[in-house]
Amino acid sequence: MRIRRKKHLDERLSGVKDYVIVPDKSILNVKEAVKFKEYLDYSKLFGNDNPVNLEVGCGKGGFIINLAKKYPNENFLAVELLENIIVMAAEHAKGENLKNLFFINSGAEYLPRYIKENSISKIFLNFSPPFPQKGSEGRRLTCDRCIQNYKDFLTKDGFVFQKTDDKDFYDYSFGQFEKFNFDVKDVSNLIENGNAENIVTEYESKFRALNMPIYCLYAKVSK
C-alpha cells in the first residue's frame, strides 16, 4: 500500500535539515552505488570522537531518542527510508535539542557507501518487518547482505541487539547471525524480567500490553 505524502512535508523537512542526512540518490543500483564511498566524518558531524551507534529502521524515533538522551556521551545514527516517518523522528529530536543524534534518509542496503568499516559500536534492530512471503528474503534486515554489512560496520567488540514479535523471523535472524559467525544469545527472558537494560519501543509497549511475547537476541561480532 502506498503511503500518502504528508501535507507540508517539504517545509517540515526543511525545518529539520540540520538533523537529517539525505544521501546521494542519483545512483539507484545498489551494487553500483556502494562502490562510490562517501563515508560520514563522525568527528565533523558530532563534534567529538565518542562511540557511534546505529539503529536501522528507526520509525518515529522514540527508541533512539530515548537512548540518545540517556547516553549523552555516545553518538547515534538512525536510518529510515520513508520521508513521512523520518520527519516526525527528526522533529522530535529537534524538540529535545539533541546534539548526539542524526538521521539518515536511506534504505539500509545503501549504508556501505556512507558507514565506514569498523566504526560502529552497537547496532539496533527493533521490530523490523519480517517479510515472510516467499521470495522476499532479500528485503529482510537480517538477510545475508545486511548481516555482512553489520559485521563490516562493527568495531572489534561491537554487537547487534534485535527485538521482534515474530517468532519465525526471530529464528531466521538467530540462524543468520550464527551463519556469519556471530556469538548469538537469546536474551528474551532477561529483558522480560527486567534483568537487562531495555529501552521500550512504541511497538513493544503495545505488544506487551496485549501479553504478546517479545523475542530478543544479542549478537556479538567475532572477528
Quick structural gist:
This protein has 223 residues and is an alpha/beta fold.
Helical content, roughly? 25-40%
Cα Rg:
17 Å
- Structural class, by secondary structure, is alpha/beta
What's the assembly state of these chains? single chain
Proportion of strand residues? 15-25%
Strand order of the largest sheet: 1-4-3-2-5-6-8-7
Biggest sheet descriptor: 8 strands, mixed
Low-confidence stretches: none
Q: Based on CA inertia axes, which overall geometry fits?
A: globular
Number of helices: 9
Query: How confident overall, as mean pLDDT?
Result: 94
Distance N to C terminus: 41 Å
Give the H and E element order. Answer: HEHHEHEHEEHEHEHHE
The counted number of beta strands is 8
